[in-house]
Structures are given as C-alpha cells and as structure tokens.
What we know:
This protein is an alpha+beta fold and 289 residues long. It folds into two domains: 13-204, no CATH class; 208-288, HAMP domain in histidine kinase (Helicase, Ruva Protein, domain 3), CATH 1.10.8. It contains eight helices and four strands; from the N terminus they run αααβαββααβαα. The chain has a four-stranded antiparallel beta sheet. Strand 2 and strand 3 form a beta hairpin. The longest helix has 65 residues, at 3-67. The mean pLDDT is 83.
Amino acid sequence: MGIRSRFMIIMAIIFGVATVGIGASSYLFSKRNAMLEAKSKGELIFNYILATRDFYTEKQRPLIMEVFEKDRFYPELMSGFVLTRGTFDIFKKNLTGYNFKQATLDPLFPPNKADEWETQLIRKFAGQPELKADEGTMERNGETFFYLAKPIKVAGKDCLRCHGDVNDAPKDQVEIYGSTNGYNWKNGETVAAYVVYVSVEEALANARKGAITLYLIGAGCLLVALIGIWLFMDRFVVNPIVRLSIKAEEISLGKNMEESVSIKQNDEIGALASAIERLRMSMVRILKR
Length: 289
C-alpha cells in the first residue's frame, strides 16, 4: 500500500470519527436543551395549577363551607380535585402535548385512578417521605414525556371530611360518587400525586434530524476534503517522489546522466530533489574523469 493510500485511510478515519462525534454531540446538546425547555414549561403549568389550588383552599373553601349545610356537596365548588382538573381542562384547549393528572390510588372520580407507572410513583413518594418532588422522562404509548410530580398527602379534617369514613361523608357526595372508592384515607398518608406531562417527542425528533443533518454536512465536507487532499498529495507529494525515485535509480545505473532533475519546490521534496541533482552532477564529473 502506497503512502498516499495509507495517508488517505488515516485521514478518513480521523475525519469520520470527528464527524460522528460532532453529530452525537449535537444530538445530546439538542436533547438536553429540549429537556430544559420541557422542564421550564412544565414548572410554569405546575405552579399555575398549584397556585389556583392554594387560593381555593385558603380563600374560597372556608367561605363556601360556611354557606352550605354539612351534607350538601357541589363538586365544582367544594372539591379541590375538581377545581384543579376543571381548570386544566379549560387551560389545555389551546395547548397540545401537555397533560395534568391527579393520579390517585383509590379515587372518588374513576378517571383519576393511577395507572401502573403512576402507582409506582406514588409508592415511591410514600416510601421516601423526605422526597418533595420528582422529575424525569417516561414512555407512554410509544411517546416520550418529561414529567414533574409532587405527592399529595392527607392533610387533616379538611381531607377526611370527604375521604374518611363513608358514613361521615356528605350525603350528596355519596350519591354522586358512590360509597365504594375514595374513602378510609388516613391522616398523613400519601394517597396521590400531582403529575404534569410534557411531550418531548417532537423536540427529540428535531434533535435527531439536526444531528443527522449535521452528520451529512460533515460527511460531505469530509468527501470534499479527501478529494482535495488526494489531488494535493498526487501533485505535490506522490508524483514528485515517484519521479525522484526513477531518477535515483537511473543515476545508480548510469543512465540518462545528462538529464537534470527538474523538480523545483520550496519544501522537503524540493530539498531532496536538490540533493539528487547534486549527486547526479557529482556522478557526471566522476565518470568524465
């Protein structure tokens, strides 16, 4: 294998590794930015929902409870779960790729029932009381989501009024939701979790496309660079060395001694050509003697 071929193979390997590295780095960087953006948007939605819930709990609910009788229950006015769910249902009409769920192990409202993954999340909160929030990515129906979650714990009599003993619950509530699910909760028990889901599927797809585009651009530049190097090597390195090799062999055999070395380059090959030319002239003088 000639010097040109070895050099081109080495350069192709170096450029190829560099191109793959740039493409992979681009994907990881874009993925990281997508996750940070999803987290930022998720936190904004989360804080809005919780602020709405806190305002209801601290300001509205005490007044509402003073107005209605003990056994009366109007979900839209007296349930924090209904309030947050209803608020988000209206909020998400103009949004796509976002979801919010009050995932509950044993809910009054069946759609709030935690699925298998959410059940594991709630149990994680229950097993780690010091854990105030959790975040990360998860897969659902072939789609990738970034999630933010916070635990929901039973907080005293306000929660137990509706979720304690079924016999103590408002009669209207029992008529609406039944007497089977959503009762016998214990004070301080982690029974549910707020979970905000932000789809990052499109962002990840764009990151992959960007990485592939960058890789193809790099591959194209690599091809152009290799062609340029090939032409440069052929003209200024390989061909002059071949000509000098032929001339050196002719001198060693005493052939074509009157033909001077015609390579004129201001580099190492030019220096070699000058040395061979001096050798030729010395051999000519010796032969004339």
